[in-house]
Specification:
The complex is a heterodimer of chains A (about 250) and B (about 500). Chain A has about 250 residues and is of the alpha/beta class. The longest helix of chain A is centred in the middle third of the chain and has 15 residues. In chain B, the strands form 3 sheets. In chain B, strands 5, 6, 8, 10, 11, 13, 15, 16, 18, 20 and 22 form an 11-stranded mixed sheet that branches. Chain B has a 10-stranded mixed sheet with strand order 4-3-7-9-12-14-17-19-21-23, covered by helices on one side. Chain B has a two-stranded antiparallel ribbon with strand order 1-2. The chains are: A alpha/beta (about 250), B alpha/beta (about 500).
Chain lengths: ~250, ~500
């Protein structure tokens, strides 16, 4: 599904190097967690996967189902099946959540050469998925993310993810700003999307999210590299010992 | 990245061709003599078979105009207009006075069809519910070509015809109201218009009548080097209601064309007038060459108590827009509204806004203005809210939002607030925002192209105003705004 080979990247504006040789292979159906201290490059990696143009790739490549992902624009990547659940979802004033969903959905369908969804079919799909995530009709009528609580924002992200049915889901600190109940609802929504054809990259600081979304593989990232890879138990180990060992390893 | 390249290609492809209405109609036309002289004024007046008092009225305006100076206070820049190099009258040769639709030159009908305005009543009737019908007065250069649904409106007592026809058929009504809202001497362009106006629409809705359908006038400038000076007069008698729409387009030409209109609205006791404009004059090309100079005076007089006038405008065209649809709130408890979306792209210059003049007691007004600037355009909101000495309990709410797209455009807000009555309550809110890179990236990550993302964000920004437009025009306006902003990011 996804193959990242020796990826080096820096911030376009000031040339600061953030990724220093990331190697990562995610097969179809797998859920990978990426953990690591602040500033290790986790969020940058997620932005680069989605195609944000604040970064310059200096070396390496990203293959998505054999295709060179770096040659595609962000909207083309979305149509190809890459979805990023934002750590800080962006407000779109005046645009009802429902309208945003429909525009996004139909944009992707057009890009893939499919017909646009009929309004009844779309409404049915939204209502079903919204109910699972406890997203009310009232919330769907409000402008996207404007005045949403932290929990509402994250639920709206997962709602978009479940409607757009991406092939690769990248979740950037989806647990931040969530209370325990919201964490459960969001995690259930994510787990529902696990399937043999879909891969996920879950970026988080904390083990608690991984209690709900149990990963197949856990990576530790530090200073722009993946420094350790293991099973779900690696996350538990980290929870006890912290990142100190890895930070030093990377520095050495 | 290819997406960016694609955008650049798209921008190149649409720069000049994005204006869909830029075609020229090849039709034999009769023009008056060049230049602004007494002879020109007499020629126009004679062409229209106007009564003597009207000719005098025009000549008085011309004499006055010769003593006036062009205003320079607006934030717009353009080379001085040589009024003696212009033609003031042009009419398709085949049009001599009002005609039935079967006599109208097929070339003209085809032009309006191309613009999406069918003029044959039977075609309009096909497939449209009676309540959704729109009566159209089609003005081509200096003359009204045809007015639809006249007979049906007459049954309801509503007069809807060209102003030339009104001058002949209903001289008393015209004489009573013409110039009563915008006096002959009001301002440079209004005075010019008073001297040389050639056509426009006239509406009279009698006491207690709710006009049974939407009325609209569709203005088209075709001829070269010709100014269009139309005059619209709408009167809603006591307790009457009318909703009126105005649309405008022009061919794509290299030189600038002048459009100086005057619109007067009169609302008597308990009457309501809703006036909507979708202005789509040719804005000029990518280098800022050509385009319409749009200097327009629009004013409504809430003359009677409890009357209401509401202006809604969507401005996407013109090289220069100088326009301040205003309300004089004379009657007690009268209400004025101004909802505006002004979009500027390329090298367009917009200086637009409103005036709410509170004279009567308990009068209220509301201003919602949304300016969107892209490209190298400059977009200014200029508005006056004033309460006179006797306007006790006057209330105004103003919201003035600007949205910037790109690095090279400007948004300016110039509000004037004057209150001479201590019981007046005026509120003013203003915001300026930019479409952020984060918003763009977020929308693109969900699958939208640059242009789709801008269209979505802009539509969210203008939603409050779009909601004020009649349904069928709301959809058209939304599309128009998207087209006007095509190529504004990249």
């Amino acid at each position: 599904m996804l193959e990242i080979k020796n990826l080096h990247a820096r911030i376009a504006e000031d040339g600061k190097e953030i990724l220093r040789g990331v190697n990562l292979t995610v097969n179809a159906g797998e859920v990978h967690a990426i953990m690591g201290p602040n500033g290790s490059g986790k969020s940058t990696l997620s932005y680069i996967l989605a195609g944000k143009d604040d970064y310059e790739i200096t070396e390496g490549e990203i293959l998505f189902n054999g295709e060179n992902l770096l040659e595609l624009g962000p909207d083309e990547r979305a149509a190809a099946g890459v979805f990023l659940a934002f750590q800080y979802p962006i407000e779109i004033p005046g645009v009802a959540t429902m309208e945003f969903l429909k525009t996004a959905m139909n944009a992707q369908r057009r890009a893939r050469g499919e017909t646009e969804m009929t309004i009844p079919a779309f409404m049915k799909a939204v209502k079903e998925k919204a109910a699972d995530l406890k997203v009310s009709m009232d919330m769907l009528k409000r402008p996207l993310n404007v005045g949403f609580s932290g929990g509402e924002k994250k639920r709206a992200e997962i709602l978009q993810m479940s409607l757009l049915e991406p092939k690769l889901c990248v979740l950037d600190e989806t647990d931040s700003g969530l209370d325990i109940d919201a964490l459960r609802i969001v995690s259930e929504g994510v787990n529902k999307l696990r399937s043999p054809e879909r891969s996920m990259i879950v970026i988080t600081h904390y083990q608690r999210l991984l209690d709900h979304i149990v990963p197949d593989v856990v990576h530790v990232m530090s200073r722009g590299r993946i420094v350790k890879t293991g099973g779900a138990d690696l996350a538990l180990e980290l929870e006890k010992s912290g990142y100190a060992d890895y930070v030093e390893d990377a520095a050495a | 990245m290819p997406a960016v390249q694609e955008t650049i290609d798209q921008v190149k492809a649409i720069d000049v061709d994005q204006y869909k209405y830029g075609f020229v109609t090849d039709i034999e036309s009769e023009r008056g003599a060049k230049g602004l002289t007494e002879e020109t004024v007499r020629f126009i007046s004679a062409k229209k078979n106007e009564p003597e008092w009207m000719t005098e009225w025009r000549l008085e305006a011309l004499r006055r105009f010769k003593t006036m100076d062009e205003p320079t206070w607006a934030r717009v820049h353009y080379p001085k207009i040589d009024f003696d190099e212009l033609y003031y009258y042009a009419a398709p040769k085949s049009v001599e006075g009002p005609k039935s639709i079967d006599e109208v030159d097929p070339e003209l009908l085809a032009t309006y069809e191309k613009l999406g305005i069918p003029l044959r009543e039977q075609e309009i009737l096909a497939g449209i519910k009676p309540e959704n019908r729109v009566a159209v007065d089609a003005v081509f250069d200096s003359v009204s070509v045809v007015t639809t649904f006249k007979e049906e409106l007459k049954k309801a007592g509503v007069i809807f015809c060209s102003i030339s026809e009104a001058l002949r058929e209903y001289p008393d009504l015209v004489k009573k109201y013409l110039g009563s809202v915008v006096p002959v001497t009001d301002n440079f362009y209004a005075t010019l218009n008073s001297a040389v106006f050639s056509d426009g629409s006239f509406v009279y809705v009698p006491e207690g009548v709710r006009c049974p359908m939407e009325l609209s006038t569709y203005f088209r400038i075709n001829e070269q080097n010709t100014g269009q000076f139309e005059r619209t007069l709408i009167i809603a008698d006591k307790g009457a209601y009318v909703s009126y729409l105005e649309g405008c387009t022009a061919p794509q030409r290299d030189e600038n064309q002048l459009h100086a209109a005057v619109v007067e609205l009169v609302a008597l006791d308990d009457a309501e007038i809703k006036y909507s404009t979708v202005q789509n004059w040719f804005p000029g090309d990518a280098q800022g060459k050509g385009g319409i100079y749009n200097f327009v005076t629009k004013r409504g007089d809430c003359r009677g108590k409890n009357s209401k006038i509401s202006w809604t405008q969507v401005e996407t065209g013109s090289a220069i827009t100088w326009k301040y649809p205003s309300c004089i709130l004379r009657g007690d408890n009268s209400r004025g509204e101004f909802y505006s979306i002004a979009v500027s792209n390329g090298y367009q210059q917009v200086d637009s806004g409103t005036k709410m003049i509170h004279l009567g007691k308990n009068t209220s007004s509301r201003i919602i203005s949304k300016g969107i600037s892209a490209g190298r355009s400059q977009n200014t909101y200029r508005g006056l809210v004033s309460a006179h000495r006797k306007a006790s309990n006057a209330r105004n709410f103003t919201q003035c939002d600007s949205l910037l797209i790109g690095q090279d455009c400007g948004a300016h807000t110039v509000p004037y607030i004057e209150s001479k009555n201590s019981t007046a309550t005026f509120e003013h809110e203003a915001t300026t925002s930019k479409i952020s890179d984060d918003q763009m990236f977020y929308c693109q990550q969900r699958g939208m192209s640059d242009e789709e993302a801008v269209a979505l964000i802009v539509n969210g920004f203008v939603k409050d105003v779009i909601q004020q437009l009649p349904m069928e025009f709301a959809v058209e306006a939304q599309k128009l705004i998207s087209i006007s902003l095509e190529g504004s990011v990249g």
